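Attaching the record inline, Q. Sequence:
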Amino acid sequence: MAVNDTEKTTYTIPIGPIHPALKEPIQLDLEIDGEQVVDVDIKIGQVHRSVEWLGMNRNNPVQTLYLAERICGICNICHPFCLVLAVEQAADIVVPERAEYIRVIAAEMERIHSHILWAGVAAHEIGFDTVFYLTWRVREEIMDMIEYVFGNRVTKAIFQIGGVRRDITAEQLPRIQQGLDYYKSIFEQLRRIFLEDETVKMRTRNVGILPYEDAMKLVTVGPTVRASGVPKDVRQDQAYSAYADLNIKAITPDVVTGTVVGDVYDRIIVRLFEVAQSIEIIEECIKNMPEGPLLAEPKMPRLLKLLTDAEGEGVGRVEAPRGEDIHYVRMETGVSTLSTWKVRAPTYINLVAVPTMLKGMQIADVPIAFASIDPCMSCTNRAIITDKATGKKSVMDYEEMHRLSVQKTKELQR
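Structure, as predicted:
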């Protein structure tokens, strides 16, 4: 408790790390004045899994690929997508064109299911569970379609370094189109529910505002930054894979409302209309998908030899459903494993904007405002360092992480 010069009292209350409004472990320490949020301190670090260390200790990058797919249960396409792009760049591997189109189809199916999942969670956070159940029932169609095409609802194992493991056959296309037609038919109902319902409007309009200037300054990504009016999208700005053949335009809320507020309502607009955009992208990919091989090197022994002989660095950038995902790798000749693997997931950077969104809000607005960035802590958390001799724990601050980053960069350059 702190008392200021005018005898005005503020209190600090924790939300999390275990809390009904938070689906993953994170702690928000809110300094409140009455019901109003005055300041926010974010504490992460409850689910660090040493993923990068494990990946660099696998026998080869192909084994690391399986681990990348398990960084996030929801975004299990974008992480392996990112990793293969980075490795292919470092090893100078050219991916067949047909495989590039299948990769994009998989990524856009993931975007549809992720955005609809988020919409259901958002409805739950404002206590509108009828919409929560409706939305997740709607999501089942894309999950069934993903299972039909790739063999599993969650981990699809479709990516391989140099291409994809399985084809999308002509016999599968009618089922895919059936699913896309279903979402076209139900889109207007979802639009009315999320954009016209007065309950949704009252709980999301002018809540969790992130102005354009702050979104740029804090380098936010994905629907979070686009909802603030910044037309930033890796698929558009630095097109990769088959996106280079498509006319991708970043969706901002003004295309629907004519204005940009940067609030939770605008984030709903962006995600909802990105679902419609993903449907169009999948249809275009199916229509224009070329014939040809699926892998640059189909024989595993030769692929592993190629990767062992590779020398260099690679950076993969993918527009995940939550925003820009980045994977960095370094490979050294004669070494079968990745010398360096660094992952930067979108939540890690979007968390920086949370205090700006929450300050001035009411306590009741915190769950939906925080949920509006679609946080994923499994992708985000960093290590707590433990001294083996004393058992004393310490958390790295920004300055220490920056110092170690500069030191590591110099070592790599040498």
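The radius of gyration is 22 Å. The domain at 51-335 is CATH 1.10.645.10 (Cytochrome-c3 Hydrogenase; chain B).

More tomorrow.
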